[in-house]
From TrEMBL:
Gene3D superfamilies: Cytochrome c1, transmembrane anchor, C-terminal, NAD(P)-binding Rossmann-like Domain. Its EC number is 1.1.1.22. InterPro entries: 6-PGluconate_DH-like_C_sf, NAD(P)-bd_dom_sf, UDP-Glc/GDP-Man, UDP-Glc/GDP-Man_DH_C, UDP-Glc/GDP-Man_DH_C_sf, UDP-Glc/GDP-Man_DH_dimer, UDP-Glc/GDP-Man_DH_N, UDPglc_DH_euk. This is UDP-glucose 6-dehydrogenase. It comes from Paralabilibaculum antarcticum. Pathway: Nucleotide-sugar biosynthesis; UDP-alpha-D-glucuronate biosynthesis; UDP-alpha-D-glucuronate from UDP-alpha-D-glucose: step 1/1. The lineage of its organism: Bacteria, Pseudomonadati, Bacteroidota, Bacteroidia, Marinilabiliales. Residues 335-459 form the UDP-glucose/GDP-mannose dehydrogenase C-terminal domain. Belongs to the UDP-glucose/GDP-mannose dehydrogenase family.
Length: 476
């Protein structure tokens, strides 16, 4: 007598909630899916008839939204109504790192989650299954359960943890054919029934053998562990890239050689200017905080090193630009190709580009930025935010204004590169490989430098054209 789910609500219409619900709606026409958010602009954008206006850029997403929207997929700001109507509620709100108080800079800030829980507790009139989709520290489900089940009004909540493993830029494919779907629940009759209800939703398109059920804590910790392992691979290959640059080995050759070992595997071994994105750093900091909390300082230090190595890599890239430009970039024009934290997304959270720009701006460079998908407003916001953080969250001041005078954002790549002293490639957008480098070279100052933070440019071609090319992990 399993509960057949016919009405789902998702709180949070961001990079996780939006695409995930669009996919569920597309695959399950019999389920009404309502995505709610407090942010009215965001909801308006999701509802925009012009699909180019969707708030997030993700290849293939517009087609999925076009098919399901206003059929069984709805975007709304009526949070209470959607909660009241739903049998199953996904929580996909943001969980940034705390910027204040206990656990500042490390622990996840659960205030948005807590607000959701209190809102659900207030509004719900019948039993509901609550699914945590945001990445949360272990035992959040317990906290959720405490808040939800303290209303004393007889309504019961079953809490599941079902972390989302989609990566941005490939979200639609990751949702369509996931390596696995993970569902954590309680080992009780009710817990099992709740898990089954969610299994049944996914079973509409995911083979049963790819749907794993575990205990809640294992599910929560699996998500942190998966991201920590992935980030660790990037930091590991980046650590080797530094050694390659000193010794003349080629890190891409090393990646190929070690990736051929099936125990290591070939994916996620691309040396780069450093990883970014909303998850890796946040989740590792979370893991570190947990380890410290449980008095495991050696384990905490082990994982913290992954972040330190990433910071080092970003710094190394910026410093190399300054070094090679004769030890100063003051007044020099540096063209940035890419601002997003990876290709095929307009997301810039924790993007290495922000860090590199900051370091070059501190050395008084002039930065000219081009990214195919990131808006001008977002780039300005990122630069201001970074500057304010450095100065301890002081309100916008003269220094920020001064800084922005040295930042120009372009809508075409060639304009960004014209008269530049150097080009820095920060994101691996495919279109960067297609440029007319002869033309770019002829319009740049000489010597013309290229710092390829993604190893995507054809080094031989560029060198033949006349560029002075520096890569990640390739000795000169
Ligand atoms: C290793 C490399 O695997 C091999 O490619 C290289 O040529 C020599 O070094 P070896 O030391 O013979 O081979 O054995 P391996 O299977 O790698 O195990 C090494 C150690 O790691 C063992 O003590 C093993 O028990 C341990 N191990 C391995 C684990 O604890 N967990 C694992 O998942 C795998
Ligand atoms: C990650 C996880 O992959 C995903 O499973 C989880 O749900 C969310 O976090 P995401 O941050 O969207 O996804 O992108 P991902 O492809 O993992 O890339 C993260 C960062 O690592 C990017 O900045 C990327 O450029 C960098 N990276 C990745 C490398 O530098 N080298 C690699 O080989 C892979
Ligand atoms: P993620 O990458 O985890 O999806 P985002 O920041 O892209 O994170 O999306 C989270 C969304 O959740 C934001 O649009 C934010 O406005 C929304 N949100 C946060 N708290 C609430 C809440 N209490 N009710 C509704 N929406 C919320």
């Amino acid at each position: 007598n399993n509960k057949q789910i016919s009405n789902i609500c998702c709180i949070g219409a961001g990079y996780v909630g939006g695409p995930t619900m669009a996919m569920i709606a597309q695959k399950c026409p019999h389920i009404k899916v309502t995505v709610v958010d407090l942010n009215e602009q965001r909801i308006a954008d999701w509802n925009d008839a012009d699909l180019d206006k969707l708030p997030i850029y993700e290849p293939g997403l517009a087609d999925v939204v076009a098919e399901a929207r206003n059929r069984n997929l709805f975007f709304s700001t009526e949070v209470d109504q959607a909660i009241a109507d739903a049998q199953m509620i996904f929580i996909s709100v943001n969980t940034p790192t705390k910027t204040y108080g206990v656990g500042k800079g490390m622990a996840a800030d659960l205030k948005y989650i807590e607000l959701c829980a209190r809102q659900i507790a207030r509004v719900a009139k019948d039993d509901k299954i609550i699914v945590e989709k945001s990445t949360l520290p272990v035992r959040t489900a317990e906290a959720l359960s405490t808040i939800l089940n303290s209303t004393g009004n007889g309504v019961e909540f079953d809490i599941l943890s079902s972390p989302e493993f989609l990566a941005e830029g490939t979200a639609i494919n990751d949702l369509q054919v996931p390596d696995r779907v993970l569902i954590g629940g309680k080992d009780t009759e009710r817990g099992k029934a709740a898990m089954q209800a969610l299994v049944d939703v996914y079973a509409n398109w995911v083979p049963l053998e790819n749907i794993l059920t575990t205990r809640v804590w294992s599910s929560e910790l699996s998500k942190l562990t998966a991201n920590a392992f992935l980030a660790q691979r990037v930091s590991s290959i980046n650590a080797i890239s530094a050694l390659c640059e000193k010794t003349g080995a080629d890190v891409d050759e090393i990646s190929r050689a070690i990736g051929a070992d099936s125990r290591i595997g070939s994916k996620f071994l691309k040396a780069s200017v450093g990883f970014g994105g909303s998850c890796f750093q946040k989740d590792i900091l979370n893991l570190v905080y947990l380890c410290q909390h449980f008095n495991l300082p050696e384990v905490a230090a082990y994982w913290e090193q992954v972040i330190k190595m990433n910071d080092y890599q970003k710094h190394r890239f910026a410093k190399n630009i300054i070094d090679k430009l004769f030890n100063t970039v003051s007044g020099k024009k540096i063209a940035f190709l890419g601002w997003a934290f990876k290709k095929d997304t307009n997301d810039t959270r924790e993007s290495a580009a922000i860090y590199v720009a900051d370091e070059l701006l501190q050395d008084r460079a002039e930065i000219h930025i081009y990214d195919p998908k990131v808006t001008k407003e977002q780039i300005i916001k990122d630069i201001c935010h970074c500057e304010e953080e450095r100065r301890g969250n002081l309100p916008e001041s003269e220094t920020t204004k001064e800084l922005l005078k040295r930042v120009t954002i372009h809508s075409t790549p060639y304009a960004a590169m014209e008269n530049a002293h150097a080009i820095a490639i920060l994101t691996e957008w495919d279109e960067f490989k297609t440029y007319d480098w002869q033309k770019v070279y002829s319009e740049m100052l000489k010597p013309a430098f290229v710092f390829d933070g993604r190893n995507i440019a054809d080094k031989e071609e560029l060198t033949t054209v006349g560029f002075d090319v520096y890569n990640i992990g390739k000795g000169k």
